[in-house]
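Hello Y.,

Per our agreement to keep a running log of every chain we model this quarter, I'm adding this entry. I've kept the format consistent with earlier entries: sequence first, then predicted structure.
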Amino acid sequence: MKEETSPSPSDFIRETIEADNASGRFGGRVHTRFPPEPNGHLHIGHAKAICITFGVAEAFGGKYNLRMDDTNPAKEKDEFVRAIQEDVRWLGFDWGDRFFYASDYFDQLCAWAIDLIRKGKAYVCDLSDDEISAYRGTQVFGPDGRRQTPPGKDSPHRNRSVEENLDLFGRMRRGEFPDGSRTLRAKIDMAHPNLNMRDPVMYRILRADHYRQGTQWCIYPTYDWAHGQSDSIEGITHSICDISFENHRPLYDWFLEALGVHHPRQIEFGRLNLTHTVLSKRYLRELVEGGAVSGWDDPRLPTLRGLRRRGFTPEAIREFCRRIGVTKSDTTVDIRLLEHCVRDHLNRIAPRAMAVLDPLRVVITNYPEDAAEEMDAINNPEDPSVGTRKVPFCREIFIERDDFMENPPKQFHRLAPGREVRLRSAYFITCTEVVRGPDGSVAELRCTYDPATRGGDAPDGRKVKGTLHWVSARHAAKAEVRLYDHLFLPEDPMASEGDWRDGISPNSLRVLRDCRLEPGLDASTPGYRCQFERVGYFCKDPDSRPGRPVFNRTLPLKDSWQKVQAKGTAC
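Predicted structure for the entry above:
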């Protein structure tokens, strides 16, 4: 991956790794991993985890793995595996030949489970899930208001002999018992203040068709059991997780110490929350399956597929992750910071184009009827090296309807009766007549042009205050444009009273079907990003067809984050 334009600041994860390297722990190696479960698509929160996990490995000249945590056959699919690989590559990371599946370790995990049984550190339990939870106990608040964890209650099967446990676990493996009837549990401490250490479940009986293993297995490891041992098998040095796994770290360490195998260090960081959206995979699935959005790649979703379809760039997402940094606690970040990073990058790289979203026909009465010419338009004023493009011009053009007012207020500097304005890269025009339709609305404008102002400047030095974008009526491509905005109206959708889905914005998507674009945009490929001058940043959608392009609005040009920063500075 290419280096970021701005260096990543030091943080507690890097400081921990530096200390490990200085002490000689792991022999100076740095080897990390990202282990998503293939039961959905990655989102911006995962992007933060990827940038941290893979970024620190790159910073220390180490390695990183991509591993599918595929221990739950009920929801996992190969299509999610392929999508995760595609998203991680798109984000800018290459794991080389270090792609793995936790399901490839099922035999080793089972052998290690038998080892713990033989050591008297695991047993087969007949309690149901509800009974296990009841026996484990729960946290309560004591008289002083502090959290307390009263001791749990031993399972009646906790003291089974090693021989009986080996027999029962073997029969579990062979499928002799019904689903959910027995589990294998670690034998730790039912009075431990950390509930995760109260004889956690290692295996459960579940007859399900695994997308890779088929029906070979009818017992499946829990995440807590598979997690650390998979890290150990792969030689991971630093297992970087989000803060929700902090209370699981003692269990992570206990399993590895009990087995006496390679022992990585687990480090936790705070999760990302983003305003005006949700980052829970469960809630995202509800939005998709409930029809609130069109799919996992809906451009309103914070999924990487949705952000990509909307036109966000991987460079901007990585810069966003660099800016928000690494914290030990969960943080909520204003979505406008992410949008600012996207605008900043697109402003530098996106070619310019002209598109009219609400067309108003303009007839230039003193321009020859059958004539046409090509104007030179700048592709990107931020990057002169990309040169210019040819834009066709003829007698009839389209401008934006809101670029004209019959009775304009003082601060309105665009087109009005008797007023002269500049057409971007073309001519000065003056409105001479307003033509109305049957309903009395403005249907067409009649204007004259000054041939001496070709290119947008007057030889006599006169100035105009308004510059409009336009497209040639004869040459323009008709298009559909989808205007996307924040999916939710509340900053925190989950804090709203009632159903959280009631906060979905009715204006999160508006579709315009009679837009006009520069003709060259019709031939662009899906995923092409550009700036529609004076309008915003847009990306060509995969729904596009020859002669009928579809563009998604990535973001409008206005950057509200700079105003937020200015207010913060003023305060």
